[in-house]
Design brief:
The chain is α/β, with parallel strands linked by helices and 941 residues long. Helices cover 39% and strands 13% of the residues. A hairpin with a 2-residue loop joins β1 (50-51) and β2. α8 (205-228) packs across α10 (271-277), α23 (670-682) runs parallel beside α24 and α29 (832-843) crosses α32. E1 component of the 2-oxoglutarate dehydrogenase (OGDH) complex which catalyzes the decarboxylation of 2-oxoglutarate, the first step in the conversion of 2-oxoglutarate to succinyl-CoA and CO(2). It comes from Agaribacter flavus.
C-alpha cells in the first residue's frame, strides 16, 4: 500500500480520529491484558510515559496522533493471537465495529432503556445503537467476535447473542450512565458489575417475598389512609411504591457492610409511608395526628409530612440507628442539613472514610434540577471540610412537578439528574415498576459509594397516582398522563402477577399477606419487622434540655491561665516565615500577652477559642474567609511564605485539648450554613460557627434562617447551638457591604428562639463565645460582628476583663459623668457607639449619657432597669442607630425601649432616614449622613 493510498484509507477508515471510543476500547483491553491487542498498538501503549513504573493515562488524541504517524509508515500487522484484529480485511473491520458497538451501548444505551412505567416517554432515535451505523447487519449474527473488555465470561460471542446481551444489559429496566466518569478504575468496576450479570440480579425466593412485602406495605398504607381519611393531604407515594423495598434494602445492605447509622433526608412525597413502613413509626400515632390530636408540650408543631423520626433497624451486621431529618416545604434544603449531621456523627465516631454513617437523600425530579442548593451540595461533596464519604441520592421521578410536566418547562437537559454529572457521579435510571431492577441498582449504588467514597444517584422513574396532593385534580393539567395512570396497575399487582407466573408464590399467599398488613394497621402496632427499640446511638442532649437564659454558669479563668494560652497561640517557630503584615500582627499579640498593649478583637477572639479548647471543647469554624478573616483580623491559619505550608497554632495548645477545625468554605451561603446547622443539631458539645464573608451575604441563606434556625425548636423541638457571625457596620462601603440586615433577625425573635448580640469590645466577644458553650443551654447565637472595630484604637480590652468571664448584655456609661447632671440618655448598639463617644468627648459634654445594649434579644430588661434607675429623672431619651430608620433595631425593639424608659419620658430616633437600600453607595454622602445622625443624637433641643 502506497503512502497516498494509506492516507486515503485513513481518511475513510473506521480508525479515523472521530472514533475515540475504539482507541479507548483498545487501551482498556491493553490494561486487561497487553497480549489481547495488536503488537503495533501494544508498542504505542508500552511507550506511554510512566511514573514510578506505573503508566500515566494519556489523552486518546495523543494515541491517535501516534497511530497516524505509524500508519504513514506502512500497513498494520495483524495481532499475534488475533483477539482484536486491526488489518484491512472486511472481517477485521467488522471486529473493530463490534467493539465500537459495545462502547456505543455503554455510552448511550440508557437512551433506549425501558424506563417509563407509563410508556409516555418519546425517545429519540439513537443511531449509535443500530447495527447499520457500524456497518453491521443481521447477516453477521452468526459470526463470532471478540468482546474486548465486555464483562461476560465468554471471550467471543456470536454477534446475534452479543446484540441481545447488550440490549438486556443497557436497554432493559435500567439505564446506566457512567461513561462520563474520567476515572478508569471506577468505569471498569461499574462495567464489570453491570455487564457480568446483564444488569439483572439473581434473587432467592425469600428476597423476592421480601420485595413483595415492601410493595404490599407501601400500597396498603396509602389505601388505608385514603379510605380512613378521605381527602386529607398525605402526599402519597402511590406510583413510586418501590421506594419502600429500596430503602429497606439499602439500610439492610449498609448495616451488613458495617454502617452503624443512617441519616435520611426527604421532602414530603411518600414521607408518611417511609415513617411507618421503614422507620417503624407506630401507625396509631400517625392516625391520631390525622385526627387532629397533638401533644401540647411540643410547641407550635408542624404538619405530619414534615416530621422527623428516629429508630433502630435490625440488619445482619447489627442494629443500625435511623434518623429521618425534619424538613420544611423548601424541598431540597434538607440535603446539606443531612450531610452536616452525618459529618458530626462520623467525627464523633472517629470515622474518617464515611463507612460508619450513611447519608441518603431523596429528591423530586423537578426539585433536583430546579433548586440551586442541590448544585451547592454536590459541589461540597469532595471538599475537605464537608465530605462524608459519599451520599446515596434517590430521585423519586414522578415525571411531573406540581402541575408542570413538559420537560422543556422543567429543565434544559434530557434527564433531571444531569446536575450530578458535575461531580462525575454515576447515575442509574430504573423503572420503578420493576422492583428487582430497583434492588439491583440499590446494591450497586451502595457498593459504589462504599468503595469509591463518592456520591451516586438512583433515578427511580415512576409516576404520581394523584395530584400534587390528594385534594388536587390532576386531569385539569395532565389529562393524557392521568388517563393512562387510571388504567395502570399498581406496582404490587404487577410484581405479584410476575411471581405467580414464575411459580414463586400462590395468589392465596399474596391475599394473606395483604390481609395481615391491613390487620396490623387496624391494630395500630409497628409494622416493620426490622424495627428495634432505640439504644444509645447519638450524643446525650439531656444536659441542655429545660434551661433558660438565666441558668447559672461560671466562665471565669485566672489571668495566668489566659496569659499561658496567649503564649501558646502566638508561638510560631522561627523557621516559619510569615507574611510581613501577619508577622507584625503576631508580634503585636505577643506584646498584648506581655501586658505592653491592650488586647484587640482578633487576639481576644482567638483566646476565647484557646480557652475552650484547653477545657476539651471541640470547635468547628467555616466561612469563605474564615482562616484569615475577611477583614484580616483572625489569622488562625498561618501560611509559610517559603513553602506555602500551613500552621494552626490553636491546634497546638496541649495534648489533651479539644479538636480545632477551621475551613475556608466553598463559595456558598445556603448550603454551607445548612450543613453547619445540621452539624450543630447533631453535636451539642462542639462550638460550631458559620461566618459570612459580609453580613449582607447571609440573605443567600435566608431559607436556613427562616425554616430551621429561628423556628426549628418551636416546630420540631430541635435544639441547636450554631453561632452565626455576620460582619456589620457602616463604613461607606455601599449597600452590599454595610448592613447584615439586623432588622430581619429581630423580626423573627420570639419564644426565646435565639440570641441576637452586637458586641462592641474584645472582652465582650471573648465572653460571648465562652458563654455559648459554658452555659448549659443550646440555642442559636446571631452576632453582628464588626469590621472597623477590629482595629479601632478605643475597641480594646485588658486581660483582667477577659478573666472575669462575664458577658454584659448592657454596658453602662464608662466616662466620669454625674448621673444627676444628665439631661439626655442615648441608647445604641455596635460601632456607632464609638462615633458618639469620640464626638461627645470632643465637645466635652457632661449632660449626655451613652448606654450600649449588647444583646438586643432576649431583651435584657432586668439589667437595663438596674442601670436606668439612676436616670429616672431624665425625660429626654434617644435611640441612635447607623441603619436606615426602617432597618436596624428601631422598628423591632422600640416596644422594649418604651418599656425601659421612665414614665412620662419621650423617646426619639436619631439615625438615617428610611430607605429602600441598606446604605448609600457614595462615601461622601455616607460621611454626611453619619455626621448628621451623631449630631442629632448629641444635640439637646
Amino acid at each position: 500500500m502506497q503512502n497516498s493510498a494509506m492516507k486515503a484509507w485513513w481518511d475513510s477508515s473506521h480508525m479515523a480520529g472521530g472514533n475515540a471510543a475504539y482507541v479507548e476500547e483498545l487501551y482498556e483491553a491493553y490494561l486487561d491484558n497487553p497480549q489481547n491487542i495488536p503488537e503495533n498498538w501494544r508498542q504505542i501503549f508500552d511507550d506511554l510515559p510512566k511514573v514510578d513504573g506505573v503508566a500515566v493515562e494519556s489523552n486518546h488524541s495523543i494515541i491517535r496522533d501516534d497511530f497516524k504517524k505509524m500508519a504513514a509508515l506502512g500497513p498494520l500487522a495483524r495481532a499475534g493471537n488475533g483477539n482484536i484484529a486491526s488489518g484491512d480485511t472486511p472481517s477485521d473491520e467488522r471486529q473493530v465495529k463490534v467493539l465500537q458497538l459495545i462502547n456505543a451501548y455503554r455510552f448511550r444505551g440508557h437512551q433506549h432503556a425501558n424506563l417509563d412505567p407509563l410508556g409516555l416517554w418519546k425517545q429519540e432515535r439513537v443511531r449509535d445503537l443500530e447495527l447499520s451505523h457500524h456497518n453491521l447487519s443481521e447477516a453477521d449474527f452468526d459470526t463470532m467476535f471478540s468482546l474486548g473488555s465486555y464483562a461476560v465470561e465468554a471471550e467471543k460471542l456470536k454477534l446475534g447473542d452479543l446484540f441481545k446481551s447488550l440490549n438486556r444489559t443497557y436497554c432493559g429496566s435500567i439505564g446506566a450512565e457512567y461513561m462520563h466518569i474520567t476515572d478508569t478504575e471506577q468505569k471498569r468496576w461499574l462495567q464489570h458489575r453491570i455487564e457480568s450479570v446483564e444488569a439483572k440480579p439473581v434473587l432467592a425466593r425469600e428476597d423476592k417475598i421480601k420485595i413483595l412485602k415492601g410493595l404490599i406495605a407501601a400500597d396498603g398504607m396509602e389505601k388505608y389512609l385514603g379510605s380512613k381519611f378521605t381527602g386529607a393531604k398525605r402526599f402519597s407515594l402511590e406510583g413510586g411504591d418501590s421506594l419502600i423495598p429500596m430503602l429497606k434494602s439499602l439500610i439492610s445492605e449498609a448495616g451488613a457492610a458495617g454502617a452503624k447509622e443512617v441519616v435520611l433526608g426527604m421532602a414530603h412525597r411518600g414521607r408518611l409511608n417511609v415513617l411507618v413502613n421503614v422507620l417503624g413509626k407506630n401507625p396509631s400515632v400517625l392516625f391520631d395526628e390525622f385526627s387532629g390530636k397533638h401533644d401540647a408540650s411540643l410547641g407550635a408543631g408542624d404538619v405530619k409530612y414534615h416530621a422527623g423520626y428516629s429508630s433502630d433497624f435490625a440488619t445482619s451486621g447489627g442494629d443500625v440507628h435511623l434518623a429521618l431529618a425534619f424538613n420544611p416545604s423548601h424541598l431540597e434544603i434538607v440535603n446539606p442539613v443531612v450531610i452536616g449531621s452525618v459529618r458530626a456523627r462520623l467525627e464523633r465516631r472517629g470515622c474518617k472514610d464515611g463507612s460508619l454513617v450513611l447519608p441518603i437523600t431523596v429528591h423530586g425530579d423537578s426539585a433536583i434540577a430546579g433548586q440551586g442548593v442541590v448544585q451547592e451540595t454536590f459541589n461540597m461533596s469532595q471538599t475537605r471540610g464537608f465530605s462524608v464519604g459519599g451520599t446515596v441520592r434517590i430521585v423519586v421521578n414522578n415525571q411531573v412537578g406540581f402541575t408542570t410536566s413538559k420537560t422543556e418547562d422543567t429543565r434544559s437537559t434530557q434527564y433531571c439528574t444531569d446536575i450530578a454529572k458535575m461531580v462525575q457521579a454515576p447515575i442509574f435510571h430504573v423503572n420503578a415498576d420493576d422492583p428487582e431492577a430497583v434492588i439491583f441498582v440499590t446494591k450497586l449504588a451502595l457498593d459504589y459509594r462504599n468503595k469509591f467514597k463518592r456520591d451516586v444517584v438512583i433515578d427511580l422513574v415512576c409516576y404520581r397516582r394523584h395530584g400534587h396532593n390528594e385534594a388536587d385534580e390532576p386531569n385539569a393539567t395532565q389529562p393524557l398522563m392521568y388517563q393512562k395512570i387510571k388504567k395502570h396497575p399498581v406496582p404490587r399487582q404487577i410484581y405479584a402477577d410476575q411471581l405467580i407466573a414464575e411459580g414463586t408464590i400462590e395468589q392465596h399467599d399474596i391475599d394473606k399477606l395483604v390481609t395481615e398488613y391491613r390487620a396490623a394497621l387496624d391494630h395500630g402496632a409497628c409494622v416493620v419487622e426490622e424495627w428495634r427499640p432505640m439504644t444509645e446511638h447519638s450524643v446525650d442532649w439531656s444536659p441542655f434540655v429545660g434551661h433558660d437564659w438565666d441558668v447559672d454558669y461560671n466562665a471565669t479563668l485566672t489571668k495566668d491561665t489566659i496569659v499561658n494560652l496567649g503564649h501558646a497561640i502566638t508561638n510560631v517557630p522561627e523557621k516559619y516565615r510569615l507574611q510581613s503584615r501577619v508577622n507584625k500582627l503576631y508580634n503585636d499579640r505577643k506584646s498584648m500577652i506581655a501586658g505592653e498593649r491592650l488586647l484587640d478583637w482578633g487576639m481576644a477572639e482567638n483566646l476565647a477559642y484557646a480557652s475552650m479548647l484547653a477545657e476539651g471543647t471541640n470547635i468547628r469554624i467555616t466561612g469563605q474567609d474564615s482562616g484569615r478573616g475577611t477583614f484580616f483580623h483572625r489569622h488562625a491559619v498561618l501560611h509559610n511564605q517559603d513553602d506555602a505550608s500551613t500552621l494552626i497554632p490553636l491546634q497546638h495548645i496541649s495534648e489533651e485539648q479539644g479538636k480545632f477545625e477551621i475551613y475556608d468554605s466553598v463559595l456558598s451561603e445556603e448550603a454551607v450554613m445548612a450543613f453547619e446547622y445540621g452539624y450543630a443539631t447533631a453535636e451539642p458539645t462542639t462550638l460550631t460557627i458559620w461566618e459570612a464573608q459580609f453580613g449582607d451575604f447571609a440573605n443567600g441563606a435566608q431559607v436556613v434562617f427562616d425554616q430551621f434556625l429561628s423556628s426549628g425548636e418551636a416546630k420540631w423541638g430541635r435544639l441547636c447551638g450554631l453561632v452565626v457571625l455576620l460582619p456589620h457596620g457602616y463604613e461607606g462601603q455601599g449597600p452590599e457591604h454595610s448592613s447584615a440586615r439586623l432588622e430581619r433577625f429581630l423580626q423573627m425573635c420570639a419564644d426565646h428562639n435565639w440570641q441576637v448580640c452586637v458586641p462592641s469590645t474584645p472582652a465582650q466577644v471573648y465572653s460571648m463565645l465562652r458563654r455559648q458553650m459554658v452555659r448549659p443551654m443550646r440555642r442559636p447565637l446571631i452576632v453582628m460582628s464588626p469590621k472597623s472595630l477590629l482595629r479601632h484604637p478605643l475597641a480594646v480590652s485588658s486581660i483582667d476583663e477577659l478573666a472575669s468571664g462575664v458577658f454584659h448584655n448592657v454596658i453602662e456609661e464608662i466616662d466620669e459623668i454625674d448621673a444627676q447632671q444628665v439631661k439626655r440618655v442615648v441608647m445604641c448598639s455596635g460601632k456607632v457607639y464609638y462615633d458618639l463617644l469620640e464626638e461627645r468627648r470632643k465637645r466635652e459634654q457632661k449632660d449626655i449619657a451613652i448606654i450600649r445594649i449588647e444583646q438586643l434579644y432576649p431583651f435584657p430588661q432586668q439589667e437595663i432597669n438596674e442601670i436606668f434607675a439612676q436616670y429616672s429623672h431624665v425625660k429626654d431619651w434617644v435611640w441612635c442607630q447607623e441603619e436606615p430608620q426602617n432597618q436596624g433595631a428601631w422598628y423591632c425593639s422600640q416596644h422594649h425601649f418604651w418599656e425601659s424608659i421612665p414614665k412620662g419620658a419621650k423617646l426619639t430616633y436619631a439615625g438615617r432616614a428610611a430607605s429602600a437600600s441598606p446604605a448609600v453607595g457614595y462615601a461622601a454622602i455616607h460621611s454626611q449622613q453619619q455626621k448628621a445622625l451623631v449630631e442629632d443624637a448629641l444635640t439637646i433641643k
